[in-house]
Design goal:
Blueprint (H helix, E strand, L loop, with lengths): L6 E5 L20 E2 L2 E2 H11 L4 E6 L4 H6 L4 H9 L3 H11 L3 E6 L6 H8 L9 E5 L2 E4 L4 H12 L3 E6 L9 E7 L4 E9 L10 E9 L1 H9 L10 H10 L5 E4 L3 E4 L3 H12 L6 H8 L3
Parallel strand pairs: 1-4, 1-6, 4-5, 8-12
Antiparallel strand pairs: 2-3, 6-11, 7-13, 8-11, 9-10, 9-11, 10-12
Helix pairs in contact: 3-4, 5-8, 7-8
């Protein structure tokens, strides 16, 4: 019987260079979409999926992220004094969403290295959720919950996947496999950042996954490649070479890559149109441009 997933590792150590100069003094995860930072949506998704413990892997410019999920007693006192009790409850609730821990990635050496930083805090027989901190999925059933359900069904690791444009394929982990139903792909191989001429699929791994103890052990054993970086997809590729079973889920929902300017603007519009306080005015404005 598979274990229930209660712990998530959220990778937030990147510099956010695609969003400079906005990210020069503010972490990319703290850029706002409508009225909340990107990372708030991701944590909401995790909690709605049953996650109770969240480990953030950060870097030395991410203190605002830590402050956001901590209590702000001065602000709480001000809201209480001014009678803004509903807003007070909302602000207090942020620090109570889950149990939070923060670990520093000392050097930027890729997502695989960031994941390794958190593994001493994961039990040897424990499967965990892994999420990246710069994208939002808007869906009726939380995207991470969809992955957890597939993991429970097949007792095997599962990664989120979506079709991508050819222009971005050299920056993605590209998947080769075959469908076992309308939404689930049995992965045969995965290649990180392939040359365009080597791409034989339009399905890319996305930023949510459930990793089992077998895969996590391979992450622990990984060594840097020629570019001195580690990629979690290399551990998945080795797992497949050893005969492991890996599923990819074409998840339901609207996916916004907020790590680039277009994706962030798309998220502002898509989620803004669902906010009853601004939806009509936003729709009217969009009709004029």
């Amino acid at each position: 019987m598979v274990s229930n997933i209660k712990k998530a590792i959220i990778l937030t150590a990147g510099y956010g260079t695609r969003m400079l100069p906005a990210t020069k003094s503010s972490p990319k995860e703290m850029l706002h979409v409508v009225d909340k930072p990107i990372i708030h949506y991701i944590v909401e998704e995790a909690v709605a999926s049953g996650i109770e413990e969240i480990i953030f892997v950060t870097s030395n410019n991410k203190r605002p992220l830590e402050d956001y999920f901590d209590r702000n007693r001065d602000l709480e006192a001000q809201l209480r004094t001014s009678g803004k009790l509903e807003l007070l409850a909302e602000i207090r609730g942020i620090s109570e969403m889950a149990t939070f821990a923060y670990l520093r990635q000392g050097e930027q050496r890729g997502p695989g290295d960031a994941l390794k930083v958190a593994l001493p805090f994961v039990g040897k027989g424990e499967a965990v959720a892994v999420m990246f901190g710069d994208d939002i999925v808007d869906s009726e059933v939380p995207a991470l919950r969809q992955l957890i359900d597939v993991y429970a069904q097949y007792s095997a690791p599962v990664i989120a996947a979506k079709k991508v444009d050819r222009t971005v394929m050299p920056s993605k982990g590209m998947i080769v496999g075959h469908n076992i139903d309308d939404k689930i792909i049995r992965v045969e191989s995965i290649i990180e950042k392939p040359a365009l001429e080597d791409v034989v699929s339009d399905i890319a791994a996305q930023s949510r996954m459930i990793l089992t103890p077998e895969v996590l052990q391979l992450v622990r054993e990984m060594e840097p490649m020629g570019n001195n970086e580690l990629y979690h997809t290399d551990a998945l590729a080795k797992y497949l070479e050893q005969g492991g079973v890996l599923q990819a889920l074409d998840f339901e929902g609207d996916w916004y890559d907020c790590g680039n300017k277009l994706g962030l603007i798309e998220a502002q519009i898509g989620l803004g149109l669902k906010d009853p306080t601004i939806a009509d005015a936003l729709r009217e404005y969009l009709g004029k441009v």
